[in-house]
């Protein structure tokens, strides 16, 4: 039997995840909305940003450490919240938070994570972050806020770009949320084609319920039930008044995740939030909106230094982390790659991926003449005036 190559990139782990996960679960994580144009643009936009290489600079003491949302990090990166991310590996969020801590980066637990706040807190030695959706039942929201605070979460990320789920055609092809015998048989066939996942995750990883939400919805393993619950409970009527209520209810840092337009920075400042995540939900909501790399500079300008800015969407390397910082972000969030690595290689695989990101960031700093993360800025990018295109 030939020995398979060691995974070196997020794309390598993606291929491993594709081979191990049932099709409907892989596509749920991997796919985007509509024709997946924004999904594609996210990654391409970072690749279009050119770095400015410098030489003969003393870079013997490079330090990738940074402080993001008040938390000391080994590099300015946090793991994004992924709904149902825990179904990609046995007790997935527990493995993910342990890998994140081993590499000195924050982990963000989704409202609809498989492992609940209590379970993740028992596995964590450092504070982790919590992501919240606004549900129609505000009593449930208040209960989640109380639980998060009690287990030590101090950074709350509130997702603002999901008043209703986007149109995800891969889910339709896999029969998710569709009635009838054919969609049911399709999902059963996909499950049976992955006996390793059934044994390692479905059987040995029980319970397959939404940990923090288990009093309100039991089934995470049934994608049809999950989709129906999301359609019924996510609140499309949320406005800035609700953000003001949330600001009054949460004593820690409050960050809005899912902002693309610079016009939304001013009301965010006025309502008293602490930061924004420049995000298009990984291209999973409105297909056709710009890549986050294209939106980031305008939001940096609009924030005027009064908001901490993170960015996600298409981050695939430590060089992309460098690019985001050079455009003015305080840090980045990474979504799909950590799930791919977890599905493909477990906790150890995710630790290797994060170590690779840190190494790539260190190399980018060395070859641009930078030794501290705080010194990364626009001067590290190749401007048109310096490029061959103007010669």
Give a topology summary.
Layout (H helix, E strand, L loop, with lengths): L9 H11 L2 H8 L6 H11 L18 E3 L2 E3 L3 E3 L12 H11 L5 E2 L7 H7 L5 E4 L5 H13 L4 E5 L9 H5 L7 H12 L2 H9 L19 H11 L6 H10 L3 E7 L5 H7 L3 E4 L13 H12 L4 E4 L6 H9 L4 E4 L1 H32 L24
Parallel strand pairs: 3-10, 4-5, 5-6, 6-7, 7-8, 8-9, 9-10
Antiparallel strand pairs: 1-2
Helix pairs in contact: 1-15, 4-15, 14-15
**Secondary structure tally: strands:** 10
Number of helices: 15
Q: What would you call the structural class?
A: alpha/beta
Q: For the residues shown, what is the average pLDDT?
A: 92
CATH class, named Alpha Beta
Number of separate structural domains: 1
Q: Uncertain spans, ≥5 residues at pLDDT below 50?
A: 387-391
The major β-sheet equals: 8 strands, parallel
Assembly type of the chains comes to single chain
Keywords, please?
391 residues, eight-stranded parallel β-sheet, single chain, alpha/beta, 15 helices, 43% helix, 10% strand, TIM Barrel
Tell me briefly what this model is:
The protein is an alpha/beta fold and 391 residues long. It has helices spanning 10-20, 23-30, 37-47, 92-102, 117-123, 138-150, 169-173, 181-192, 195-203, 223-233, 240-249, 265-271, 292-303, 318-326, 336-367; strands spanning 66-68, 71-73, 77-79, 108-109, 129-132, 155-159, 253-259, 275-278, 308-311, 331-334.
